[in-house]
Amino acid sequence: IHERIIETPKGKLKSALFFSTKGKPGMAEEYYIKDREDAFKFLSIPYVPIKPDVSSFFREDRRIGERGIVMVSLGADPIYWIQQIMGSELLAIWSIEERELLTEMVEVMFKRCYDFVKYLVESGVGPVFGSAGQELATPPLLSPDDFREFVVKYDKKLFELVHEHGGLVHVHCHGNLDAVLEDFVEMGVDCLHPMEAPPWGDVPLKDAK
Questions:
Q1: CA distance 188 to 186
Q2: What are the CA-CA distances from residue 26 to residues 1, 22, 23, 112 (Å)?
Q3: Average pLDDT taken over every residue of the chain
Q4: Looking at residues 98-107, what average pLDDT do you find?
Q5: Is the model's pLDDT at 86 over the cut of 90?
Q6: In sequence order, what are the residues at sequence separation of 6 or more whose Cβ sits closer than 8 angstroms to the Cβ of residue 171?
Q7: What's the pLDDT tens digit per position in 118-176?
Q8: What is the share, in percent, of the chain residues with pLDDT greater than 90?
Q9: Is the pLDDT of residue 205 over 90?
Q10: Are strands 72-73 and 27-30 parallel, antiparallel or unpaired?
Q11: Please, is 165 exposed, middle or buried when counting C-beta atoms within 10 Å of its C-beta (0-12, 13-18, 19+)?
Q12: Residue 207 pLDDT more than 90?
């Protein structure tokens, strides 16, 4: 078990992760956010914009040439980062019981994601950008209305920024998408992957077309 502690202006946040000794996927044992007090600790952390060195993209792009496409990662959408620090169970509960606080947290992450996407597109990388995380807010965990409130509302603005700079958006999203499929169109997604038919999802390819 790997424990991590973050010192914030309002106190400590702690998480614990099970790490496999055989190279298998890990599992969260304890999330940073467990209650309202933890949420306010998270919101108190000073924001430092992420501006990575993007020179490796251009090297890879030259190396690959016409043999393929080097896709730029947008990281993930705002709801993904919130789920990562509180878990799916609390996310679902707070979408009902602490909706105002949850919205505030998503708003904070959206502003940071927007800054990051803006930095990337203005750095000249692209034109294909990849995004993920939307699947953590699809039914049945959250409702279609929740998906529009916590995903579409924010991702649309991120993807518009990519399109304004001539880019394309590829979204990776597993699960049941039938109830929210048109919302990906509304967001401006250029490529949605995968499109899962039953039993893994609920959208047969014929229906999707």
A1: 5
A2: 10, 10, 9, 27
A3: 95
A4: 97
A5: yes
A6: 130, 131, 132, 134, 184, 187, 189, 191, 192, 193
A7: 999 999 999 999 999 999 999 999 999 999 999 999 999 999 999 999 999 999 999 99
A8: 92
A9: no
A10: unpaired
A11: middle
A12: no
Identify the CA nearest to 125 among candidates 186, 181, 58.
Answer: 58
* Calpha distance 130→160 (Å, rounded): 14
| C-alpha to C-alpha distance for 151 and 188, rounded to whole angstroms | 12
In whole angstroms, what is the distance from residue 87 CA to residue 3 CA?
A: 16
| Residue 49 scores a pLDDT above 90 | yes
CA dihedral (159, 123, 136, 36) in degrees, to 10, reads -110
- Pairwise CA distance, residues 85 & 72, whole Å: 24
Q: What is the DSSP letter of 191?
A: E
The span from the CA of 135 to the CA of 96, in Å, is 19
126 and 164 in contact (C-beta within 8 Å)? no
> Does residue 147 contact residue 80 with C-beta atoms inside 8 Å?
no
C-alpha 6/C-alpha 43 separation (Å) is 13
* pLDDT of residue 37 exceeding 90: yes
Q: Are 92 and 147 in contact (CB under 8 A)?
A: no
Nearest-angstrom CA–CA distance, 86 and 35: 9
The sign of the CA dihedral 2, 113, 123, 58 is positive
pLDDT at 208 over 90: no
